[in-house]
Amino acid sequence: MTYLNTEFLQSELSKPFVLPEGAVEHFNTYGYVKLKDVLSAELLSHYDSVITDLVFSLNKLTKPMEERTTYERAFLQVMNLWRESDEVKDFVFSARLAKIAADLLQVNGVRLYHDQALYKESSGGITPWHADQFYWPLSSPKTVTVWIPLQKTEMEMGPLAFAEKSHHVEIGRDLEISDESEAIMATQLKQFEVSEAPFDLGEVSFHAGWLFHRAGPNSSGRPRKVMTMIYMDQEQKIVQPRNEYQHADWETWLLSKPVGGAADSELNPVLFAY
Known about the structure:
Blueprint: H1 6-14, H2 23-30, E1 32-35, H3 41-58, H4 70-74, E2 76-79, H5 86-92, H6 95-105, E3 109-120, E4 127-130, E5 143-149, E6 160-163, H7 179-188, E7 194-196, E8 204-208, E9 213-215, E10 224-233, H8 244-252, E11 270-273
Antiparallel strand pairs: 1-8, 2-3, 3-10, 3-11, 4-9, 5-8, 5-10, 6-7, 6-9
Protein name: Ectoine hydroxylase-related dioxygenase (Phytanoyl-CoA dioxygenase family)
Cofactor: Fe(2+)
Keywords: Dioxygenase, Oxidoreductase
């Protein structure tokens, strides 16, 4: 474990990142963008240890891999780690990362929807094709997820793959992540180019809420450790939940704030604003 002082960590997490030329256009056109050298190796090593300890202490999925569903085989999933650790809160609330989200969405500020650690175990299976916003009772597509590998992520570890431009069409938007979504969307998405490539250490991706994406299995013999944060336009409104998952999200991440009102519960602070 790399121990770094708080001043160093906070300095890096707050320092603005200058988007490369064409990044916003790429995000708008293709629904995602990958950015190199966003976070240092030293910072990632530090948070690898901190987040991993929390994931394995809070994880409740303990049954053998062969007894799990496809979704359960995809990853260990632990949400809102920022509420469990002040140190992780500094990471999740990073102004550096939130500013990138605001710039890509072309909004004046972003709120946190929630964070989640996604750890694909060494024998973990595929993450089926899906679009995240199926789960969110939000009025606007102005949402984005940052996907932060805590290690260099080669192909055998199951890096994220993106169906380019799929956020522009309204297909598969009623599908939960499942064997069914994988089978149906594998056919439906043949009209789209799929981008799948390793992630260097320090490289992160941002993808739109309605962009279809998946990940392959992890055959590396090592866990694929990823931290994510979901950002939304600070002006985002809550809509009537359209499925049981959105209803659960409305209660859990939005604290049942009024439908039609702002998505501004105490769990949804503004992380960056101009």
